[in-house]
Design brief:
The chain is α+β, with helices and mostly antiparallel strands. The chain has one domain: Nuclear Transport Factor 2, Chain: A (Roll), CATH 3.10.450. The protein has helices at about 5-20, 45-65, 80-95; strands spanning about 100-105, 105-115, 125-135, 140, 155-165, 170-180. A 4-stranded antiparallel sheet has the order 2-3-5-6. A two-stranded antiparallel sheet has the order 1-4. The longest helix is centred in the first third of the chain and has 24 residues, at about 45-65. About 15% of the residues are buried.
């Protein structure tokens, strides 16, 4: 493997300085490397169970924000992270500014582990497929008129990625994509 020129040059300067005796004699010891990421789940089954629990909490918080008309959308930061969180907050603020309100709850089932990457660090640690059922969810405008189309697909297969927050020791939703609409 070839090292980038900057890395090779920096290594060469460091080596030349050390060998020529130009390094200060009172130089402190190099900093110890930061603790490496330790995978939080010992098995795929544990990872899947944690993902199911985390997604259930995500839908609970999301449903509550929608029931509240999008108010206090920042609560989503308890269960989501990154650009997914930021994009969701924009949508929830628009929901609130339009005066929309939702009723009912999303029901998720049939969780299948797509990937568990315990050695790659906390980013996108777990990815799952799941069935999302929105048949009980209604969205109303400020006049109380339903915005749900009659031809809405109530079932959808979703692909959901999770990031592990090491400080909170918690999985957070970091992405959600529609995989297939109308079927689970």
């Amino acid at each position: 493997m070839r090292l980038p020129n900057l890395v090779r040059a920096a290594t060469g300067v460091l080596l030349a300085t050390s060998l020529s005796g130009c390094a200060p004699s009172d130089a402190s010891a190099p900093p110890q490397p930061a603790a490496t990421f330790a995978a939080p789940y010992a098995t795929d089954e544990e990872a899947l169970a944690a993902a199911e629990e985390a997604y259930t909490e995500y839908t609970r918080v999301s449903d509550q924000i929608l029931h509240d008309g999008g108010a206090d959308a920042e609560r989503l930061a308890e269960v989501a992270v990154g650009s997914f969180l930021e994009e969701s907050l924009v949508e929830l603020r628009e929901f609130e500014s339009n005066g929309y309100r939702a009723t009912g709850e999303v029901v998720s089932s049939d969780f299948v582990l797509q990937r568990y990457s315990p050695k790659t660090g906390p980013l996108e640690l777990i990815s799952v497929y799941l069935c999302s059922d929105v048949s009980a969810v209604e969205i109303f405008d400020s006049s109380g008129i339903s915005l749900v189309a009659n031809e809405r697909d109530d079932l959808a297969t979703m692909q959901v990625a999770f990031t592990f927050n090491n400080e909170r020791r918690q999985l957070l939703v970091s992405d959600q994509q529609l995989w297939a609409s109308g079927t689970c």
